[in-house]
Amino acid sequence: MELKSLEIPNILRAKVAVVGESKVGKTALCQQLASDGTNYPKNYLMTHGAGVHVKAINIPDTNDCVEMYLLDSSGKELYTPILEPLWKGSAMFVAVYNVCDEASFGSVVKVRGSIFISFLESYSLTRYDTFQWIEHVTRVVKDGDEKKTDRKLMGVLIANKSDLGDRRVVPPKAGSDLAQQLGLLYFECSNKDYSGVEEPFFYLASEYHKQFEEKSDQIGNFA
């Protein structure tokens, strides 16, 4: 009897900090992704501190899998002393805002003088917060990098609740322009319809796998 050799898959594990204001849909996003669209929460429950969800993403044409540990972070600033130690060691982040809430859009990036304010006002958006999620999480991860590798933290910007078109106040161009300025990719999704939920995470998993392959090649060259 001929025995077939078994290929053991490479499982790459990565922590993903999911950040943004309260009520933008971070928990629903994580739950829907982890359950392949079968666990949309019927009622809103505020996240106290953080929740963890796991999603394994197979990389096409390889025997590799990226296992993403989604750190669903509370949108309340008072929980940051709890969140900061958890964010350390993150390989990537996901910044989420609600297309129906301009304040949630204005809180994803640091306001630098009048430049960002002018950017918001050019889209008739006047509300923004002083607490800025992307700036905060990237600083915490960089400060916690013991090896001081100066690696760029991968991330994406997600405009959530795209199904609520009649209530939308943040236009798609505002989101895509902001993402371009930050060097991020822009995605839109609807947790309720499970539309566009997978794409940003598949992109991040693919980019993380590319980094793994590049490092493997570098090690192979020195061997």
From TrEMBL:
Which parts pass through the membrane?
Answer: none
SUPFAM superfamilies associated with the record: P-loop containing nucleoside triphosphate hydrolases
User: What's a single GO MF annotation on this record?
Assistant: GTPase activity
Q: Which terms are listed as keywords in the entry? A: GTP-binding, Nucleotide-binding
Identify this protein by name.
Uncharacterized protein
Q: From which source organism is this entry?
A: Tigriopus californicus
Q: The organism's lineage?
A: Eukaryota, Metazoa, Ecdysozoa, Arthropoda, Crustacea
